[in-house]
Amino acid sequence: MNWEILIPLFGIAMPVGIVWIIYDYDNRAKQQFHATLQKLIESGQELSPELLESVPGYKAGKKDKDDIRSGLITSGVGIGIALFGHFGVGEQPLFGIGLLVLSIGVGMLAYGIYSKNKKGDDLS
């Protein structure tokens, strides 16, 4: 069997499969929430916030993005890619990609710290 053809095939199929699984899971949770909500409305039950929170699939509004957390995670991934490129496989392009991802993470981290400080100044 020709293994060289399987590597790109899995390289494309696996990310698509992962995205599809996540989308399908999220879609099922939404459908379950709406079906349960419809049954509660049809039964004439009062919809209190506590009752809504207990319904499976409930998501409390949109959470604020935590740019500091995202920046730290992205920086860590960038450092990992750069180290893997430098020490693991010895490839210069992979090292450069790692530094690029690290730079993006540092930018997100700086923005998160800046916006957090700015929100703190606005409240006082």
Key words describing this protein structure:
2 domains; mainly alpha; 0% strand; flat; 81% helix
Number of helices: 4
Binned, the helix content reads over 70%
What is the terminal separation in angstroms?
A: 68 Å
> Runs with pLDDT <50, length 5+?
none
- Sheet having the most strands: none
Write the layout of secondary structure elements.
Elements: H1 3-42, H2 49-54, H3 67-88, H4 92-123
What would you say this structure looks like, in words?
The protein is mostly helical and 124 residues long. It has two domains: 60 residues; 61 residues. Helix content is 81%, strand content 0%. It contains four helices and no strands. The radius of gyration is 22 Å and the shape is flat.
Give a brief rundown of this model:
The chain has four helices and no strands. It is mainly alpha-helical.
